[in-house]
Amino acid sequence: PAEEEGPCGDWTYHEWAEAFSTNDLARTLPPRHIAVCRVQTGGRGRFNRQWIGEKGGLWASFTVPLDTPHEASSEICWGHLPLVAGVALLDMLRDMGIRNTRLRWPNDLLVGRSKLAGILVERPSDHMAVIGIGVNVFNDVAGIAGMVQDPPARLSDLLPDCPSVHGVMAALASHLDRVFTAFSRGGISALRDSLALAWAEPRPVTVFTDDETVQGIFTGIDDQGNPVLSLPAGRARTIPAHLVNRLKE
Ligand code: BTN
């Protein structure tokens, strides 16, 4: 059982001192609950990469209801949930006064070139998704720098008055609630304005699919959430999101 439980805005949170992965714990909860832990020993990222979850960071998984019939339309599709979480994180950080933040498609939150937060969405059932979010807050990031792909950033280095980990969870929960509600009603187009700013300036990337490697300038996403690259000679190329194995800057 969780050590501590209670309301967190319109969510209910369950906090464990230690967990293997909050995404696993969240699977057992109903929608609109949060599984959070102080130390996460088996945290995972996309492609089964390890996510190091030492004390002082926010390691939390939010459960959201999915309305299966809606998903026949491409507008509201669970594959867009990483973008929903990304927009919630960006809005939260902007509220805290942090500039220079951006998303790296589809689900990394960077400050400059450093990674502040990661998102891992999983779907345990037809009717629920788990949005796992890791945010470096006070945790020791210097110690993990050599073990992770991107140089890590943490909130307490960016904010003189950094909120507590609980404070960050509450702020994120409220933004996620708002962004998810807008998305459930209007699909990804409801996030169009926020997403237009989310990528910051266009930058060169390499996209890997099973069949090819495409180099170009990432300019944003189309209405379905697929990455759009500008290629030499002014051509644009949209790569179906489900074919992308990796996008490297
Ligand atoms: C990534 O960068 O690839 C995503 C990292 C996601 C990490 C969070 S921490 C809370 C939740 N539990 C997990 O096991 N992973 C996510």
Automatic annotation (TrEMBL):
Pfam family, one: BPL_LplA_LipB
Keyword tags: Biotin, Ligase
Superkingdom as given in the UniProt entry: Bacteria
Signal peptide coordinates: none
Domain spans labelled BPL/LPL catalytic: 1-184
Coiled coil regions in record: none
Reactions this protein catalyses: biotin + L-lysyl-[protein] + ATP = N(6)-biotinyl-L-lysyl-[protein] + AMP + diphosphate + H(+)
Family annotation (SUPFAM superfamilies): Class II aaRS and biotin synthetases
EC identifiers of the protein: 6.3.4.15
PROSITE patterns on file: BPL_LPL_CATALYTIC
Top enzyme category: ligase
InterPro entries to which the protein is assigned, alphabetical: aa-tRNA-synth_II/BPL/LPL (IPR045864), Biotin_CoA_COase_ligase (IPR004408), BPL_C (IPR003142), BPL_LPL_catalytic (IPR004143)
Entry-linked PANTHER family: BIOTIN PROTEIN LIGASE, BIOTIN--PROTEIN LIGASE
Protein name per UniProt: biotin--[biotin carboxyl-carrier protein] ligase
Originating organism: Akkermansia biwaensis
